[in-house]
Amino acid sequence: MTIDDRWFAMQAITIMDVPSSVVYFYPRLIPLHDIDVDSNEIPSPIRCSSEKLRDDGVYLLENGIYLFLWIGLNVGMEWVQNVFGVHSAAQIDIDRTELLEIDNPLSMRIRDLIEDIRIQRHRSMRLFSRLVSCFEFVQFEMNVFQLTLVRQRDKLELVFKHFLVEDRGLD
């Protein structure tokens, strides 16, 4: 985490309302591999622990500032093809910051869910965007609400696991 990232987090915390700060300190981990494409509800979050991550699962982690999409290496080929347009998790371009717009119910549902979360967080972080505009001279390497793809066992998994708060202090 850079100095700019730390400054950004400290400033964000000072203006968060209680519900936003709860999500910041205890992120939501949402399983997407069994998502109901016919529902408009956000799936129930699970405990924020690496023990809950399945090799054949896909999870969205969000804390009001960061969005991570963790992809297990054994996710079904059909799921990967419907959402990412490739045949296996190993072929997913993790440098992308948005999902492909593929015309099928699963892809549309996942993209809609991510957009719903962004809208929820945008409403609660309006004051924060004003704060950032006051400090336009500061160059941030990070983008608020930008989707970060994390494949199981890749380098970024260490960053992702930093947000799994139930794993802290177990060493």
From TrEMBL:
<protein>
    <submittedName>
        <fullName>(California timema) hypothetical protein</fullName>
    </submittedName>
</protein>
<dbReference type="GO" id="GO:0008270">
    <property type="term" value="F:zinc ion binding"/>
</dbReference>
<dbReference type="GO" id="GO:0000149">
    <property type="term" value="F:SNARE binding"/>
</dbReference>
<dbReference type="GO" id="GO:0070971">
    <property type="term" value="C:endoplasmic reticulum exit site"/>
</dbReference>
<dbReference type="GO" id="GO:0090110">
    <property type="term" value="P:COPII-coated vesicle cargo loading"/>
</dbReference>
<dbReference type="Pfam" id="PF00626">
    <property type="entry name" value="Gelsolin"/>
</dbReference>
<dbReference type="InterPro" id="IPR050550">
    <property type="entry name" value="SEC23_SEC24_subfamily"/>
</dbReference>
<dbReference type="GO" id="GO:0030127">
    <property type="term" value="C:COPII vesicle coat"/>
</dbReference>
<dbReference type="InterPro" id="IPR007123">
    <property type="entry name" value="Gelsolin-like_dom"/>
</dbReference>
<feature type="domain" description="Gelsolin-like">
    <location>
        <begin position="41"/>
        <end position="111"/>
    </location>
</feature>
<dbReference type="InterPro" id="IPR036180">
    <property type="entry name" value="Gelsolin-like_dom_sf"/>
</dbReference>
<dbReference type="InterPro" id="IPR029006">
    <property type="entry name" value="ADF-H/Gelsolin-like_dom_sf"/>
</dbReference>
